[in-house]
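Hi there,

I know you've been waiting on this one. I reran it after we fixed the sequence typo, so this is the corrected version. Both the input and the resulting structure follow.
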Amino acid sequence: MFSLLPAASSAALIITVFPLLLTHWSSPTSADDRFYRVCGEKNSSNYTSNSSYQSNLISLLFPSLSSVAVVSGGFSDATAGAALDQVFGLVLCRGDVNATLCSSCLAAAFDGVVQLCPYYKRAVIWYDDCLLRYSDRDFRSSTDNAPETIGWDTNQRFAGWDDPKSAANHSFYNSAINTLLSNISDWAANQTSKFATGQMNITDDFPTLYGLAQCTPDLLTAQCQECLQDLINQTLMNFDGRQGGRALGVRCNLRYEVHPFYYGETMLKMSSPAPTGNSRTGGKNKLWIIITTTSLALLFSLSLLCFLWIRRKRRAREEKEKQHQTQPLNIETNEASRLWKSEESSSSDFSLYNFSQIADATNHFSPENKLGEGGFGPVYKGQLPEGLEIAAKRLSTCSGQGQVEFKNEIQLIAKLQHRNLVSLIGCCIEGEEKILIYEYMPNKSLDFFLFDQTRGALLDWSKRFHIIEGIAHGLLYLHKHSRLRIIHRDLKASNILLDRDMNPKISDFDMARIFGSNEIQANTNRIVGTYGYMSPEYAFEGLFSIKSDVFSFGVLLLEIVSGKRNAGFHQYGNHLNLLGYAWELWKEGKWFELMDASLSDGYDKVEIERSINVALMCVQENAMDRPTMSNVIAMLSNESITLPHPKQPAFFNLRITSEAEEALDQTGTCSVNDVTITTPYGR
């Protein structure tokens, strides 16, 4: 049994402690693996059922945050909504768990936080394998680790700890644990993943110590070290000779045990001399204390020197960036030259930039210039000296997108020329910096307008139909008319950018896939994209083709007509998603009830009805039943074409259980928020 204490900095309204299972490591995360939760914080408020905040919360947490975390190293932070209903979220899986356990833990955490912290606008829940946090305030740039908690084994102490003559043992164990945790923390802070494990071997008479330390990967080295050191101090003050202990926070956490508790090989192995026992002379005890103290002092001095050296180097680099004058890029020596010279990425309109040019253009990536946060890093607005406005996508070193994905996006976009595709102006590669430079879209993305009642009114039907046609033509170009057959694999409202004239441009080709001339279908074990827009054969079996993009287009088309998110399931009665809701209305001849209420009287009923018909054809469960994009364009633009009747769409049977049904189900678990969620997973 573990005992837990909330740290002094925690200001939780409700704090609940769960028993910790020490032997569950080979089994998936379950409800019994909950370790600790905090519902609410000081001065925080609540949200109401079926509110915009609840909708934003659910769409953000799962699968949006969790799916990104699973494919990007176990960490993701993002936001959903705007103004007073905006929700900020963060998820972090333990660095040693695989994608399957990470996904399982985050799914359990999502279910747990919704049921256990109902209607709180701020909450944190920790499991053994993951952490989930959300709030109505933006905490992403803060390094504050609160709320925190300390836990230790209530039953087991080190041998001889209670012996009043064992002061030497006390000093030894304190020193050993401090040395173990300090070394692991330093190691973790200097890793890209900000995660490390370690063990300290002593002698056969004393147990081997095992430890783990982790920070969120977005922290700098010094920030991670400071966070973990604070937890070490709290642990040593409270553990009182316990054989197991852990400290949890929202930015960092650590743990030690006398048995292995993490997956995989130990990353850092160290040894320590055995302490003197009760039979040793007092002189030897003193000698051992002196040796230990001296060693710790030396270790601390080396760590401090290392920290000061790293900080000095970072400051020097920042100063150099500020003072560096803009100069032509030497493509003969820069790493970008290899991309420039490759046949796939050559383009007369593609330019190479050095880092100082982009830093100057974006005011050194100031928060005021930040346009948003993508799956692989933030995007900043900038202006080049000649006056050209740009959007700079600065890929995070911990984002999960490596050289392969980066080169993939350059190779794809640099040679694509179409009015409905975003233009890649150039790139920058210097050291660990990888930046893509796009044309700036002043009207942001389609979801900025579409899912907001006030801004949605600015999109009358003529603008929406113009956007629909533009997206369709852009997809047709990718599938058929470009030099390569390209499958986008992540078509959604947030990846449709709008220029000054509200012309749509498909963006974000990180996940795109090039097909050979004779290829019509491919298979992958790595499912990427966004749940809610994925076709069933891709989500469940990893099969994708041009018909996968057609399915995503169908979902997007229904969203444009209705002004509602497919994932906003609380809006659609018994149906989990927009597809099922649209199908029921279509069958009953009430398709007009699907229309966005903000549309004025100037809409074309025939166009809207045909658009819904085409959308339902695009989201058919069988890929063979879906039209191609050339067929879609023909059906949308030619009213003389008789449209086939659509069949029942995919994911139709995914639904929310009603209260009456739950009352009849004696074996089910009641949800605090009166909803249960069925989530599809890929095989």
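Quick highlight: The chain has four domains: 2-142, 157-282, 336-439, 446-664.

Best,
R. S.
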